[in-house]
Amino acid sequence: MRIAVVDDERVFRQQIADMISSLYGRENVSCFLFSDGRELVRSFENDFKLDAIFLDIEMKELDGMSTAKVIREFSKEIPIIFLTSHTELAMEGYEVDAFRFLGKPIDVNKLRQTLKDLEKKLKVEEKIVLRKDGEDLIFPISSLLYAEAANNSVKFVFSNSTVEQRMKFSEAMEKIDAIESGFAKIHRSYYINLAHVVKMGATEVLLDNDEVLPIARGMAADAKKQLFDFIRSNGR
Length: 236
What we know:
34% helix; 15 strands; elongated
């Protein structure tokens, strides 16, 4: 996850960046520090990609609320988490569709919950783009049940449709992994979404659309471990 931390107090922006990195895991998050709103706006003008913004409201140059209004001209969806010691400003935040307000000084438990909720929101919005008949088709990655190798192509099986692409199975797995980590290879021909698993045995797996897929003997133990890890991480 790529997160911007915007605050005109150097010590505070570094402190919250360290807290985010510690809670979320440094290998899973990159924090980009900005000293004021104008600096953040310039990054958007240069098409700098971010997943979320932690934004101080009370800054001397361009204040946080004004910055958020400009950012909304670039992106209607990016989550904005306001940082403030004045909770009475929360009502104004609804004008820019604020994701959350965190009081200063930051409560570590509230920050932890904010990061969990933020991750859920971003996962819901993640999409996979496939081409069919010369057109781009966009699907929520959460609706992908599994990918299946089929000769020189791959079938992407969704909850309500199937799209076949001419590509290598390894390329399909890489494409999926770039978007979502909750998939597991259970067979040389199947890469399944663990979120849709109802039951997993030694030789087959039952998905929530009632399909039963085979599990290769040598992959069963690793697939089951990945499923247990996924359940622990996602609270299922």
